[in-house]
Every structure is written in C-alpha cells, then in structure tokens.
Amino acid sequence: MFVALAKWSYLRVLLVAALLSITGCATQLAPPYDKNVAEGLTTVNTEAMTLMAVASQGTDKSTFASREEKYNALIGKLDALALSAGARPMPKNKVTDAINKLLEKRGGKPIDEDDATPPSAHSIKRIAETLTKMRDTDKKQGVTAYEAQAIKGQLVIYFDQAITYENFLQR
User: Fold this and answer.
1) What was the pLDDT predicted at 108?
2) What's the pLDDT score for residue 19?
3) What residue stretch is flagged as signal peptide (predicted)?
C-alpha cells in the first residue's frame, strides 16, 4: 500500500510539474491589448444603446434631422475603432503555423497573417454597417418599433462579441 501511495504521489508531482511547464510558455495567439480600443468600445456601446432607446418606440422620417448627427458621430467613431482594432499585428509563431496546417488538412482556409483580422474588428465593422443601414432607413421612411428591436438585438450580439474579445486581451 505504501508503494502505491508513493507511486500516486510521484505521479501527482510529475503532473503538477508538467502543468507548470506548459503554463509557463508564453505563446501569443491574439493581438496585444489596446486600452484605447477597449474604452472606446465601451463608450460607443453606451451611446449606441442610448440611440436605440430613443428609437425603441419607432421613428418618423420627419424627425430624422434630430438624430442624424448622433448616427453620423457613432458611425464615425465605430469606423475609427474598427481601424484601430484591426491595425494591431496578429502574432506569427509555431502555434499559429500548427493551426494553419490543421486547417489545411481539414479543407479550411488557413489564417493569413496579412489578411488576419481580430474578431473584435470584424464585429465593430458589423456594428457600423448595421447603424448605417438604420440611419439610411430612418432618413428614407423612419424605423418601426419592431425594426428598432431587431436592430438592437443585432447590435447587442456584435457589441458583446467585440467587448468580450477586447476584455479577454487584457489578461
């Protein structure tokens, strides 16, 4: 019994040592954290949700002028944030090479470091596109309460993705 217990303890020590050596590796798989992108995203999220609250009961094209400046400011800030988020270099290392080889074996498209876009930049672009479509619809005919609700749902999904990713990078 003592031998079995000693053997078990030895295996535990080996397991802990292996885990510590693995966690000691600093392989970067994502772009570096940028506080300006994270904070800008949080600020724009608040502004966009405020605009959605205004539009939640529907809008009329005759009052579009009172919202136009807000739309344009939000879209401009989002375009700038998407550019900043996407301008960070994606890392290139043995792990990303291994991932690319695995993707190629399975028929997937490898991650091209020249074309790689962080997920947050993609989500931010989608937020800007959604608000642009909403602005154009609001100007042309107004937005119904149902349309506003659907647009808000889409914005919430994209903001959640972008904010989650950016906050994850802070670690």
Assistant:
1) 59
2) 45
3) 1-26
- Return d(Cα 141, Cα 168) in angstroms, integer: 40
Long-range pairs of 83-86 with CB within 8 A, sequence gap ≥ 24: 84/34, 84/36, 84/37, 84/40, 85/34, 85/37, 85/118, 85/120, 85/121, 85/124, 85/162, 85/166, 86/117, 86/118, 86/121
Contact 35, 121 (CB under 8 A): no
Cα(154)–Cα(151) distance, integer angstroms: 5
Q: Is the pLDDT of residue 4 over 50?
A: no
- Distance, in Å, from the CA atom of 89 to the CA atom of 77, rounded to the nearest integer, reads 21
pLDDT at 114 over 80: no
pLDDT at position 3 is 46
